[in-house]
TrEMBL record:
Residues 51-138 form the Purple acid phosphatase N-terminal domain. The lineage of its organism: Eukaryota, Viridiplantae, Streptophyta, Embryophyta, Tracheophyta. Its cofactor is Fe cation; Zn(2+). Residues 352-408 form the Purple acid phosphatase C-terminal domain. This is Purple acid phosphatase. Transmembrane segments: none annotated. It is an enzyme of class 3 (hydrolase). Residues 146-336 form the Calcineurin-like phosphoesterase domain. It comes from Cynara cardunculus var. scolymus. It comes from the Eukaryota. Belongs to the metallophosphoesterase superfamily. Purple acid phosphatase family. It catalyses: a phosphate monoester + H2O = an alcohol + phosphate. GO terms for molecular function: acid phosphatase activity; metal ion binding. Its EC number is 3.1.3.2.
Amino acid sequence: MVSNRLNIVLPLAAAVLVISALAVTVTADYVRPPPRKTLHFPWVSRPSSQPQQVHVSLAGNKHIRVTWITSDSSSPSLVEYGTSPGKYNFRGHGDTTSYSYLFYSSGTIHHTVIGPLEDDTVYFYRCGGQGPELKFKTPPSEFPVTLAVAGDLGQTGWTQSTLEHIDLCQYDLHLLPGDLSYADYIQNRWDTFGELVQPLASARPWMVTQGNHEKESIPFFKEGFESFNARWKMPYEESGSTSNLYYSFEVAGVHVVMLGSYTDYDETSDQYNWLKADLSTVDRKRTPWLLALFHVPWYNSNSAHQGEGDNMMEAMEPLLHAAGVDIVFAGHVHAYERSKRVYNGKSDPCGAVHVTIGDGGNKEGLAHKYKEPSPEWSVFREASFGHGELKIVNSTHAFWSWHRNDDDEPVRSDEVWITSLMSSGCVAEERKEAREILWSP
């Protein structure tokens, strides 16, 4: 049930949006500290069957995938779980995978899907029949729902601050638009990243898509994304996709499409055809909110990575616009930026709000330079590390806030109420031209 405070504030949302639409671009002049050094992880001896790098993700309706790694290949892919500490009334069995990369051999990577599970419920669980007891909370089945968003994480001191700040918010799900570990071919950095994020990733579902730092291809020897696909398996099969690099899922009243900036996306590609089919089946009465995530931003007024998303935008933006996507999240640029509703380079009441949030704490530092004058569609931009929170209150209103890391404290630097396109006549069912784009042969 929505709180009284939110009921009072909601009528102000339209006014806030009007003010936001009329305002000129704000480029924050906050003086940012330099990037912090990459964290160093001391080697710790563990039993070979000890579960490590535990994380959970959604795996279809009312199911969770639990992923962990062991050094011992004979350790069972068993998850015991229940709703009381130490009492495991249910068991799930999964499968394993592994990979080799030059002189590196991964441990045994376990993937076990458990469920059906109750919504909005804390479960206590144990992996492999031993190890410490962990717990996760399933997302709610209806509004309100809160999504934490942070991309380009890496493994620096700023990453640690970002994770600590996300942990402070009462979120239900983490969305990560690419560039996870910054392993960059050094495979044990995937292991240290798994250890770094386990406290959060084992307690709430993490839904991720790939970035350029996940590719790790070696011509004529290694295809791209082998490490990413083995370690971070997402529910692509459940969404009808044939690739772990793009998929969709639903949570509460939200349909989310996770796209791949580094796999084929033109009109003849499998990804394009999958996206068109996926968007054409979205029921906006059941999931009134529609979000999209990918790595390379389409709307970017930072000097960094200019134009890199243009080809993907040319191919896929008409599909997102026809479907009435509400918000698009991207990473890649190591700074924050939020747009007005925009389509085809211009403000559009039926366009998506684009948010660049590649500022989780990467080792490469921040992208400080913005283009001047700022484009008409840009509302707020700041080169700082931080994270975002999207609190979807009901079928029509959501509150977005971005929190910079300021001396290890989360400081809310940008915020806005967003009204769903479902309530504005912009969804495909209500526009002939949109129906023709989505449902044409």
